[in-house]
């Protein structure tokens, strides 16, 4: 059996799979995000480790004893700064933190991040976070001996090794994405060197062994730990999105459209991310939206819904395009296609008829429309997407799938276990490494549970609202107004 651990934003998920790919056990533990100032988003690295231990130990002891290898997945871009004693110097700055927008322009002027790093410099990435710390917290910056991503801090606690995989490291903006190696030029632009970076491995390569004391605590042998992947790449591995042209939609805290490619295909102008995949000699493109399922939880709390399922039920009872209400889901800014850290969300066209049901429906539509913008950016880059596999917690709602499929005018494929997400892919990467298996034999799509085809009536109903949604963005964006 193989254990996959996903260090998410809202929680840690641990999943054990059997050799045939079936899920043998699961455990979860919640995490919280702190926002001490506007645009800031932080977590304490020690909380990741505490939650990891809780999630793993929630799995049946008999299942844990059978684990042969461990893979790691995690939220990308988080700047975890360690001193000489390998302890965090400050809370980690997360992927949805927007404080470093000024530093982005400075870095783009300092080095060829577009050509070497294959991406725009955005506040969400790791490099501008370090530029911000260098400018605003110089005493801390001077103490930095190692920079790790969230899952790799957990790896350090598990194995004692400072290591990372290609897919997660590509999201730092310090990687030469084509060469799959750290770029001394891009590191120097941030005042760093490769001595402060972890060793690089492919996602299916062994990076170290579980410490004996941790193995004893978890009730398993000191098994190998493999590179794993950033959450999106690992999620793709979990549902078999590993060949050129395969595509998925991830409905987690953030929303991601992911397309596997057999070569590096950047599209900087469209704010499309181009990163290494978690498997050797593969890359991928992503359209990334900073708020997806997070919007569902937010509006559920705002309107008094007990939970997300109750919110989905309210929306379904209301129906597609039932009112003129629009929701722009930019609660943490936006990446694709706007690259706008300062824009914030908005409800528009509210009136006396607006109620909880219409607000719920507007939120489902608004997230679907912004995801459709990202799909358009990928297609504008010449990428063909005929259907998308759906993963993440948002995959549990069939009704939301109906809305998204209509907004995309594209079929969605729901796979058995798709809601398990990146932890499943991390476990599969461990299986590939330990069994020395061909990834094509292990990383296969799970069985299809259902296919949601776009309903022509829904497409027509949503089309005017989608047009109004796109027209509204320039009117609420400080970036556009300042031009």
Give a verbal description of the structure.
There is one protein chain. This protein has 483 residues and is an alpha+beta fold. The chain is built from 19 helices and 24 strands. Strands 18-19-17-16-22-23-24 form a 7-stranded mixed beta sheet. The protein is globular. The termini are far apart.
Question: What order do the helices and strands come in, and which of them pair?
Answer:
Elements (H helix, E strand, L loop, with lengths): L1 E6 L3 E7 L5 E8 L11 E2 L1 H13 L3 H5 L3 E6 L5 E3 L9 E2 L7 H10 L2 H5 L8 H11 L1 H4 L4 E3 L1 H10 L3 E3 H5 L4 E2 L4 E2 L1 H6 L9 E3 L4 E4 L2 H7 L5 E3 L2 E2 H8 L8 E5 L3 E7 L11 E4 L6 E7 L3 H11 L4 H11 L7 E3 L17 E3 L7 H25 L7 E4 L6 H11 L3 E4 L6 H14 L3 H4 L5 E5 L3 H21 L1 H4 L2
Parallel strand pairs: 1-5, 5-15, 9-12, 16-22, 22-23
Antiparallel strand pairs: 1-2, 2-3, 4-7, 6-8, 10-11, 13-14, 16-17, 17-19, 18-19, 20-21, 23-24
Which key terms come to mind for this protein?
single chain; about 475 residues; alpha+beta; five-stranded mixed beta sheet; 24 strands; globular
Mean pLDDT: 94
Uncertain regions spanning at least 5 consecutive residues:
none
Please describe the biggest sheet, giving its number of strands, its sense, and whether it closes into a barrel: 7 strands, mixed
Distance between the termini: 56 Å
Helices and strands: which structural class? alpha+beta
Count all strands and give the number. 24
Shape: globular
């Amino acid at each position: 059996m193989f254990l996959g651990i996903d260090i998410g934003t809202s929680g840690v998920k641990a999943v054990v799979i059997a050799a045939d790919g079936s899920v043998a056990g699961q455990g979860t533990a919640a995490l919280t995000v702190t926002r001490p100032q506007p645009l800031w988003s932080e977590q304490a690295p020690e909380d990741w480790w505490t939650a990891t231990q809780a999630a793993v130990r929630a799995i049946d002891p008999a299942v844990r004893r059978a684990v042969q290898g461990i893979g790691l997945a995690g939220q990308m871009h988080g700047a975890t700064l360690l001193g000489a004693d390998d302890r965090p110097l400050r809370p980690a700055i997360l992927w949805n933190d927007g404080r470093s927008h000024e530093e982005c322009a400075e870095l783009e002027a300092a080095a060829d991040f577009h050509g070497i790093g294959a991406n725009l410099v955005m506040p969400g990435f790791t490099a501008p976070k370090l530029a911000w710390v260098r400018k605003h917290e110089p005493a801390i910056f001077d103490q930095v001996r190692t920079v790790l991503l969230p899952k790799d801090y957990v790896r350090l606690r598990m194995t004692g090794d400072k290591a990372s995989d290609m897919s997660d490291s590509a999201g730092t903006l310090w990687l030469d994405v084509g060469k799959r190696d750290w770029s001394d030029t891009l590191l120097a632009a941030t005042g760093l060197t490769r001595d402060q970076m972890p060793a690089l491995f492919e996602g299916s390569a062994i990076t170290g062994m579980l410490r004996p004391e941790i193995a004893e605590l978890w009730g398993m042998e000191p098994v190998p730990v493999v590179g794993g992947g950033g959450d999106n790449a690992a999620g793709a591995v979990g549902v078999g999105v590993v060949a050129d042209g395969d595509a998925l939609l991830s409905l987690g805290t953030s929303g991601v459209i992911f397309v596997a490619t057999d070569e590096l295909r950047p599209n900087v102008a469209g704010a499309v991310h181009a990163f290494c995949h978690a498997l050797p000699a593969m890359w991928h493109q992503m359209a990334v939206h900073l708020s997806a399922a997070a919007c569902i939880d937010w509006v559920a709390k705002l309107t008094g819904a007990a939970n997300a399922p109750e919110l989905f039920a309210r929306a379904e009872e209301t129906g597609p395009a039932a009112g003129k209400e629009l929701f722009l889901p930019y609660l943490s800014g936006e990446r694709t296609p706007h690259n706008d850290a300062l824009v914030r969300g908005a409800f528009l066209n509210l009136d006396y008829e607006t109620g909880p049901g219409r607000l719920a429906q507007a939120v489902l539509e608004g997230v679907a429309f912004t995801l459709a913008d990202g799909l358009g950016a990928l297609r504008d880059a010449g990428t063909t997407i005929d259907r998308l596999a759906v993963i993440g917690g948002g995959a549990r709602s069939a009704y939301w799938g109906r809305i998204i499929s209509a907004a995309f005018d594209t079929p969605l494929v729901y796979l058995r276990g798709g809601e398990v997400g990146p932890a499943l892919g991390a476990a599969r990467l461990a299986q590939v490494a330990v069994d020395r298996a061909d990834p094509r034999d292990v990383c296969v799509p799970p069985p299809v549970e259902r296919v949601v085809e776009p309903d022509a009536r829904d497409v027509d109903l949503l089309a005017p609202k989608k047009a109004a949604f796109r027209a509204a963005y320039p009117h609420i964006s400080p970036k556009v107004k300042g031009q």
